[in-house]
Amino acid sequence: MTAPAAPLRETLAGVVGSLATLALMVSQALVAHAPLGAGGAASGLAATAVTCGLAAVAYALFSRAALPAAGPSMTTALILAGFFAGQMAARPDAAWALAAGGLALMLSGLLQVAGALFGLAPLVRQVPRPVLAGFINGVALLMAISQVPLLLGLPAGTPLARWLSPAWQPGALALGLGTMALILLLDRRRPGLPWALLALVLGSAAYAAAQALWPGAALGAVVGPVPAAWPQPLALAPLFAPDGWARLLAQGDAVVGTAVVLALIGSLESALNRQALDPLLQQRHDPRHELLSIGAANVLCGVLAGLPAVAQLARAGAIHRAGGRGALAAAAGGLALLLVFVAAAPLVAPLPLPVLAAIVIVIAWGMLDRWTLRLLNPWKRGSHASGLRGGLAVMALVCAVTLWRGFTVGVAAGVLLSMAVFIAMMNRSLLRTRADAAERPSRRVYPAALEERLQPLRRSAVLWELEGALFFGNADRLQSLADTLQPDARVLVIDLRRVSSIDESGAAAMAALGQALDRRGVPVLLAGLAPASAPAQALAVIADELPLWPDADRALEAAERRLLGAQADALLAPTAPADSLLLQGLPPAWQALVMARLQPLSLAMGQRLFSRGQAADALYLLSAGSVSIVDDDGRRLVSVSPGMMFGEAGLLQGGTRSAHAEADQPALVHRLSLHDLQALQQQHPELLAALYRNLAVFVSSRLRTVTGAWWASQA
């Protein structure tokens, strides 16, 4: 018995929840089609029947989301109203305007389907937040402004200059304000109630009672006679009239522009609504499939001259509160609304326009963007951060342009201004840090003689660390930075590890920088990009003459080698164990005793000598090549040159190795084990004391030349 009851509960919940939003649907119908004149109410209700009924059922069938409720939205209804107003201003022909609007809606649905098929569904969420906020605020204000004449008892579309003319009706204003107060009271006291529907019923009852008690009282107009709201399958017929093609060409920019804005705003609203429903329904929707489904529903709406369809948050929430959880509830609710608009359309006739206007104004107030309100709070407290100013400026511009020139121009202006703000921000943040090799030497440990020679030279090796994107908006900053390079600079290292992207302009600017500095005798070394990364590929095409090092540390070592010139090769030449720092100053007899215990090991390039976690049971002398101590990620901690030792700290401290030792190039090392040191201590304690003295001198010299962060060589 419980199984049959579940579909029944779903159906009842869908019907009850959908009827709770009836006032909102009627308001959207009247707002969207008000510019079409006397027949606007009838055509608006017919369009709403298509969207709330046929399109909603189609979306419920094809969607994979939980509780897939679709229907019109006040935002897209107002966009369509703006289009109709423009068409009627050009030529008062309601049938043609309705057909052109249907074509625009059908094109918007096709754009949504194409966006889903080409994987653009996630991109609809990438519209800059200030642009979206300004647009939403502009739409909300336009909604409220469009209802003020009805609230004053004036005809829809009455100009601002006539709002307070003698024709306005105080009774209508009182009825509207009373409806607003009732809505706010109900929403505060009982937020779970369908306040819009209750306000519509109670406001209409108050209107009827006042008319009965005071016949002829000026309380504003009613919707008026409305025929059954049947869908109009021939709504697009005027497009195929003899002059239809010529008229369509003349209005093509308005049709296409409206289609693009409807597709973008409808997709954004659907995505945001579905995102808000996911936590409530404990699911994650598929943006691609949902955009595909809503696009197909809008194609159907366009063919039948309906209103734009979006994934509805209000109806889905009302159905959920009524107990509905799935597609059956959403489809049943859509069919219920279709029956109301088709069979009960005459019941809409006595609805008072001031009451409907009050409901729409309250809805418009609720539509004001919450992000904007949160952004205004720190502004009121005196914060004037550049990001705050930029966001508010973009929002205000989009809102103002939307009110002044309409939706398409408002969104376009906002996107352009956001790009300008983004370029300005990127232009400011190109150079993150500036240093020289004396402040940030490489992690190569040099023999004492070489280190003494290198120290004064490091000031002429400059390091720049860039961050952000290197693109057309800030590429010219590279040349400005080059002008600040000190005259005695001999090599420039540019660390690009924090650069997120490089376009063609950025790569060309980098190549030009390299050529300009090369003429000054200052080579440019790039570092920090993986060879397969997109920024590295961009540089490889245009700036392939600039050498690229895996990280700034390796590039700084290359810079140090350039500063040393031929001396580097001579002083980094192979060294005999007897000339190492460990045996330095020892009598030949003692040297012979130690060398007899040294175990020679040959390492190929990349071969690991020991690993982290192994027992620290020996120290090593490097006679030829290079050995580096690296962490688990392969990042170099320190590199050892010929004649030097490593692994001594781990040996002295005991325990295990804390990093890995690998050969950078073919290397020859000599191993002196802990066992051999213990044997020397027993047999020749004076010799061991001399070895420890050399170890202390070596460690002290390393402390003067490398930072403590590189002391993982104690492994």
Rounded to an integer in angstroms, the radius of gyration calculated over CA atoms is 38 Å
Broad shape: elongated
Counting structural domains, the number is 3
Largest sheet: 7 strands, mixed
Task: Report helical residue fraction.
Answer: 55-70%
How many DSSP-defined strands?
14
Structural class: alpha/beta
List unreliable stretches of 5+ residues: 1-5, 707-715
What is the average per-residue confidence, as pLDDT, rounded to a whole number?
A: 82
Percentage of β-strand residues:
5-15%
Number of helices: 27
Amino-to-carboxy terminus distance:
73 Å
Question: What does this protein look like?
Answer:
Helices cover 57% and strands 11% of the residues. With 715 residues, the protein is of the alpha/beta class. Strands 4, 9, 10, 11, 12, 13 and 14 form a seven-stranded mixed sheet that branches. It has a five-stranded mixed sheet with strand order 3-5-6-7-8. A two-stranded antiparallel sheet has the order 1-2. Strand 11 and strand 12 (636-640) form a beta hairpin. Helix 2 packs across helix 14 (353-367) and helix 10 (252-281) crosses helix 11 (287-303). The model is unreliable at 1-5 and 707-715 (pLDDT under 50).
